[in-house]
Amino acid sequence: MNSASGDANGAVCFLSVAGVRRLVGAIGLPKVMHGLVDAIEVDFRRWEEFNKVPRVTQATGEGFIELMPVSDQHSYGFKYVHCHPGNALRRDQTVTGFGALARIDSGHTYLLAEMTLLTALRTAATSVMAAKYLAPEGARTMAIIGSGAQCEFQALAFHYVLGITTVRLYDVDPLATAKAVQNLSSTGLHVVACATAQDAVAGAEIITTCTASVGNGRVLTDNMVGAGVHINAIGGDCEGKTELQADILRRSDVFVEYPPQTRIEGEIQQLDPEHPVTELWKVVAGHAAGRVSSQQTTVFDSVGFAIEDFSALRYVHDLAVDAGLSEWIDILANPDDPKNLFGLLLCMPECDRPGNDGVN
C-alpha cells in the first residue's frame, strides 16, 4: 500500500484535467474502472488502518465547500470539493474539486490532482464495488434516475465491471436524458429513455438515484420499489437533501460508508438516530453479511467518503507514473540549505530581480 514517492528536487506529480483525460485515453476506460473498483475494495478491507474524520463543511448560502481528509501509515490525503447548484443556471460546473497526497514520514506532497473527473470516476467505482456485495446475482437491467454529470459514469462502470446490459434513464429535464442517450449510444449498452421515474424503474434490478434535487425530495416512493431490488442512492449528500421516501429505508437493509457522516448527510438522516445500518467495509472485509436472499431489498446510502478519494488518488498516481504519463511541477521549496529559505528567494534570474526593467 506504500505508493508514496516524490522527486528529490521537490517536484510533485501533477495530474491536470488534460492529464487525467490522457491517462484514461491511453489505458482505456474499462481497465481504469476495473482498477478503481479493485483499489477501493483493497482500501475498504483495511478500513481500520485509516485515521478518519467526517468531512469539514462550510455552508456558503449558495452551496457548500468541503474538505475531506484521511490518512494511513504512509500517506495523508485530502480533497477540496464544492457544490453550488446555482452554477448550472450560468452553464457552469456545479461541482469541482482537487486533491493531494503527502508522505507521512516527511510531510512532503507527492501528488496534486484534479478531482472533478476523478470524483465522478471513483463515485461510479464505489457504487459498483457496493453492488458486487449487495445487488441481485446476475442483474442485467439498471435504472438511473437523474441524467446529469454522474449518469454515464454509473452506466458504464456497471456495464464494464458487473455486466449490466440495459439502462433505463429518466430526468426531469428531457435534454439531460437526450445528452446521456447520445453519450452512451456506441457503448454496447441498450439505452431506454423513459418518460417518468416509475417507467424507468420497471423491471430494473438495480436503481441508481443521482439527482440534483434540493431538499427532502421523493425521487423514489415506496410503491415504486419492489422486493429484491438494490438501490444505489448517491444523490443525497448534504444535510436536508434526500431522494428516497423514508418507508423504503425502513423495510430495507441499509449499508453506509461512515455512519457519523451518513447520519447527518445521507438518506438515513430521515430516520431515528439509532436506526440500524451496516458499514460497507465490514461486508467487504467479511465481517458482516451483504445480500443473503433474493427477496432482500438493499440500499447503499452513499454520501462519498475520503477513503474513496484516497484510493482514487493512490491508483491514478501509480498508474500515471508506471505509464510514463505523469506531469511534474515544482511547488515544494527545496533550498540547498534548509535553514536558508530566504536565500532561495534571492536566487532568481537576473531579469526577474526587483528594480530590473531590462533596460541597459
Automatic annotation (TrEMBL):
Note the NCBIfam families from the entry. PRK07589.1 (NF005762)
The record's Pfam families line, in alphabetical order, gives:
OCD_Mu_crystall
Alphabetized InterPro entries for the sequence: NAD(P)-bd_dom_sf (IPR036291), ODC_Mu_crystall (IPR003462), ODC_N (IPR023401)
Q: Which domain of life is it from?
A: Bacteria
**Coiled-coil ranges per the record?**
none
This chain belongs to which protein, by name?
Ornithine cyclodeaminase
Which lineage is the organism of this entry classified under, starting from the top rank? Bacteria, Pseudomonadati, Pseudomonadota, Alphaproteobacteria, Rhodobacterales
User: What stretches pass through the bilayer?
Assistant: none
